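dumping the sequnces here before i forget
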Amino acid sequence: MSQPPAHDPPAEPPAHYEILVDGVLDSRWSSWFEDLQVISDEARQTVITGPVVDQAALHGLLAKIRDLNLPLLSVRRIRPGDPSHEVGA
Amino acid sequence: MAEPPAPTIEQAGASGSDELLATKLYLPQPPPGFVARPRLVEALHQGLTRGLVLVCAPAGFGKTSLLADWARQRQRPVAWLSLDQGDNDPARFWRHVIAALDRMRPGLAEQVSSLLGPPPPPAFEGLVTALINELAAQPAEDQLLLILDDYHLIETPAVHASIGFLLEHLPHGLHLVLASRADPPLGLARLRTRGQLTELRAAELRFTVEEAAALLRGAVGADLPDTAMATLAARTEGWVAGLQLAALSLRERSDAAGFVATFSGSHRYVLDFLTEEVLERQPEPLVRFLLETSVLERLSGELCDAVTGRGDGQAMLEQVERANLFLTPLDEVRGWWRYDQLFADLLRARMQRERPARVPELHRNAAAWSEAHGLADDAVRHALAAGDAAWAARLIEHQADGLLVRSEGATLRRWLEAMPAALVRSRPRLCLAQARLAILSRRVEGVDGLLDAAERAWEGAAGTVEEPYEPSVGRAASLLANIPATIALERAILAELRGDAEQTILFASRAQALLAEGEWMLAFLARTHLAVAEWLSGRLLEAERAFASSVAQWRATGEPFPAAWSSYQLAEVQRAQGRLDAALGTYQHALVMTAAPGRPTLPAAGVALVGMAEVAYQRGELEVALGHLTEGVARCRQLAYTQPLATGLAVLAWIRQDRGDHAGALAAIGEAERVAPTPGVASLLNSVPAQRARLLLAQGDLAAATHWARERGLGADDQPGYPREPGYLVLVRVLLAHNRPDQALRLLERLHGLAAAQRRTGSLIEIQALQALALASGGDEAGAMAVLAETLVLACPEGYVRVFADEGPPMATLLGRLVAAQRARQTAASGVPLGYLGRLVRAFESATAASGSRAGPGRAVMAGLVDPLSERELEVLHLLATGKPNQQIADELVVAVNTVKKHVAHILDKLGAANRTEATARARELGLLD
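..and the predicted 3d for all of it:
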């Protein structure tokens, strides 16, 4: 039969990602980053973490980070509920 | 038999976006307070000597300003193009690049635009090649810079590939400069090692302390102490976006030192801190204006009013500009502006944070204004951003025809992919748009399902009031206006590709019945497909009439490609009727249509040239055929409709085969198979697979040919219809090769009956040639000769040669015996003109000569007509033909008279002539004397 066009809702729950950037963003930035959690620490790094619908959305987030000139430190896929990145760990 | 596209009746819908084209081509002004950086300009200048110049750094590093300043300083021609998301459509991308180049090299666009289609080219190398050639052909003393800004927005492999191609073949005097936030996938590593890349990256673009000082002093005055400037430079890390914001902050303050201390003491993301600083000090209405208009990619006074709901848009924009708040004009007249991307992002982030509910409303206002002003792309984007997919759907439906007409199928596909799937399935026109895209790109597997969905949606909406539908190309030319008719038409196309004439007629007739007054595009297409169906059914007269009328109608609209394509189809019917001259005439008319003197030759000319090559090949004029193919195949490569290219390559394969280049032949037919449409297509519409099997057989690979016939499900006891005839003729040859002439004859009998009833002389000639071979193989020598003689009489008037020559040694042998019989004046063979026989014999001769065989069967053939004249005998013959007496000949050739006499005797004998006059006449008939 026909192949369904892109955009059908995915079957499994979205994966969770943790993105670490250099620089201090406060939590108000959450709305810019698709309502992901935005937490900064004393190491002057910021963790952006939460569910990401698919790879395209992930790359969209990374592009936003790039476009703000925030140095990207790491991108990690995590299990929901994993402890967030620890300071200086 | 693929679908001709909608014609360019009007460039409808293009006008809106073309209005903004000027803003993309505008060379930006340096911003106020711009600090020139000669060290960087020098580096750019040096870079021109090498290859690609790449300015690659994240947002806010001043890439655009630097390049614009450099370009303005140079006083040499600069073609500037600011890229946007929409340029991911290769057709659009190149249209814009050409427009940019055309400003500096007027006339360029006219020369190459036809290559953008319709129909769109499958790859853009043909277009880029033409562009390169045009630029190289008009060398100017000045170097021309092509600057592409925001190249990181390009994600489409097709665009990267074509730019890569341009880079590799850059004409002298053209330089390519890219500005991007990320490394483009253009093989940079290789360019680096070859020293063909000049890069300015973040490290180079960072402002030095001196440069920062110049910027800050320029903005705030000379009072700022050095330490303060050093601190700011350090804190912003030379990032000019930060420096500019810092400068703005400083201007409003009396306590510079205090600000610097707070700023350097804060660890907040630099722009976060500074933006707040700056905005805090702006009047509230201005801030609100900034936030609300940040949803726009481009701003004009009117558009801002529409978005904000106020009336002071123009005044506000000027105020923003005066405050140096990152607003850049996009033209000389201050009609259009845009915010620096980084600043816009910051504003949007803030808006999202503070008043998220207002954002969709702003987008809706923007969408409405864009729609009203013909800016389709923007309207769709804003409608989707507003979350109003139904509105976006209506916009897409309005634009779809126009996009296809402008070869912007990629844009249409991108829009459709951004739509929720369930919504697409519920709207018949979107389903039809998707179906059209699928058929155009040959992915026909899902199309049935799309048409079913369209039908369901249409029927489901029956009884409800239909939304008014006014497509940009007008209802009359639209393929989406009349939904039931288009569904029927697309089903007709699917049936046609399967070779199912009956279903094609059924659906195409239904489409016709459903047409409304004035819907000429659908009417044309329905008629064309009915014509193809007539052809598939073997009703050649009707098909010919229908195609001829199609050609006339397309010519009347002034659309060369569909006219050329219909001509090609018309000529195929004429060839099926055995009328090579008529077909040649048709191809020549098509060539005139597509290669008018003084105008650039269209890719569609390839279709005509391939056809002419086919006729020339069949007549044994291999050199002529090759000449046509060289140009024809090259032009056909620029067409999305690959059947003509495949056909041309198949002819090339046979020419190579004749010359003994077996490997080359296989390569050509292999490529033909790769480019030809889907294998499910009937062999009459796509004979390439059958041709390949036949070629393998001719090269002695019986196993492969047998295997192919089995795979295709061809059985010797089948009752074949016309659409599958080419495949069955291959099966006949396979049977003969397996020494099963009886089976072959029975199959041929059936094929013959059908071909005779349908008056398909072209087929009859081939069928009868095979019948002769089969009879001979079965031992019925006399029968074979009789059939062959009859066939030759049939084939002679139009000059068929290869249909015999391509059958190889068995046919050569049979022909030889026939010729011997003719020489002996036996009646069986008397109807065939000598000259024609000579041509046939020579055709075999060249094959054996090429394959370098010894005294193979080819040579034995000549015994009947012409024992091959030796070199020397040919020399004597030429001299003899000019009337020279033996003595003179002897003198010229420096031999004894007796030798000459012996030669002459042999000549007379071999030619079966009684005297020199007769010998000369015979020799002329046989084409031995030119």
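The first strand of chain B starts at residue 52 and ends at 56.
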